[in-house]
């Protein structure tokens, strides 16, 4: 069984003020923290961007030559969305299962990833879910072929949200964050760096861990 990791790096980063995938966090680009945590857990890593400029920015800072895919955001009147990026990743992924991740979560837990990969076997998706019902579709594992079909269907219906794709799939396993907390007590696996304040928080966490 082959596994792919699809890292979405095509967002506008409007809250951060600059393209955050390449922002420096303790001596290396933010996205490198994500790549390093998943590289040994999968057979391939794909990075999805929404413009040629984003791809060039990544190639300029990443040490290893990444496999970068440009999604169709620029061709859509409604603009891009995580679903558009996910579709581009599913189309290129060679793995039977695809781990979908954002580029701005530097503390992704390897143990949580392995749990999701295990729980997705014989299912179409394994997705973390909070007690209030909120789900984490961008830190989840998907059966590649089923998700590709569902993503195409959602976009054909002009639905750009991940929930629309997931709702049409069936055989989705939700994993409570209460279970995940047993693996990652502080749930830092879900920490997104969306603002400068988040970046400073990430730096403090790294300082404590080192």
Overview of this protein structure:
There is one protein chain. The chain has 210 residues and is α/β, with parallel strands linked by helices. The chain has one domain: Spore Coat Polysaccharide Biosynthesis Protein SpsA, Chain A (Alpha-Beta Complex), CATH 3.90.550.10. Helix content is 38%, strand content 19%. The chain has helices spanning 30-38, 52-61, 82-92, 110-119, 144-156, 162-167, 177-183, 196-209, and strands at residues 3-8, 24-25, 28-29, 44-49, 67-70, 97-102, 125-129, 140-143, 172-176. A 7-stranded mixed beta sheet has the order 5-4-1-6-8-7-9, with helices on both faces. A two-stranded antiparallel ribbon has the order 2-3. Helix 2 (52-61) links the parallel strand 4 and strand 5 (67-70). Helix 3 crosses helix 5. The protein is globular and about 40 Å long. The model has no long low-confidence stretch (mean pLDDT 92).
Labels describing this entry:
210 residues; 7-stranded mixed β-sheet; two-stranded antiparallel sheet; 8 helices; 19% strand
Summarize it.
By secondary structure, the chain is an alpha/beta fold. The chain has helices at about 30-40, 50-60, 80-90, 110-120, 145-155, 160-165, 175-185, 195-210; strands at about 5-10, 25, 30, 45-50, 65-70, 95-100, 125-130, 140-145, 170-175. It is globular and about 40 Å long.
């Amino acid at each position: 069984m082959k596994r792919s990791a699809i890292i979405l790096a095509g967002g506008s980063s409007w809250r951060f003020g600059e393209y955050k995938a390449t922002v420096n966090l303790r001596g290396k680009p933010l996205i490198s923290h994500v790549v390093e945590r998943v590289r040994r857990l999968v057979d391939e890593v794909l990075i999805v961007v929404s413009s040629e400029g984003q791809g060039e920015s990544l190639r300029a800072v990443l040490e290893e030559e990444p496999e970068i895919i440009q999604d169709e955001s620029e061709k859509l009147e409604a603009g891009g969305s995580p679903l558009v990026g996910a579709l581009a990743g599913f189309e290129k992924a060679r793995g039977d299962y695809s781990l979908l991740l954002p580029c701005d979560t530097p503390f992704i837990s390897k143990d949580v990833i392995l749990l999701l990969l295990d729980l997705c076997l014989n299912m179409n998706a394994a997705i973390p879910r909070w007690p209030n019902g909120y789900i984490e579709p961008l830190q989840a594992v998907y059966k590649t072929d089923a998700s590709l079909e569902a993503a195409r269907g959602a976009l054909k219906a002009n639905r750009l949200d991940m929930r629309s794709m997931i709702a049409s799939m069936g055989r989705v396993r939700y994993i409570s964050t209460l279970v995940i907390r047993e693996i990652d007590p502080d749930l830092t696996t879900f920490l997104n760096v969306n603002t400068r304040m988040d970046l400073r928080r990430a730096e403090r966490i790294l300082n404590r861990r080192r």
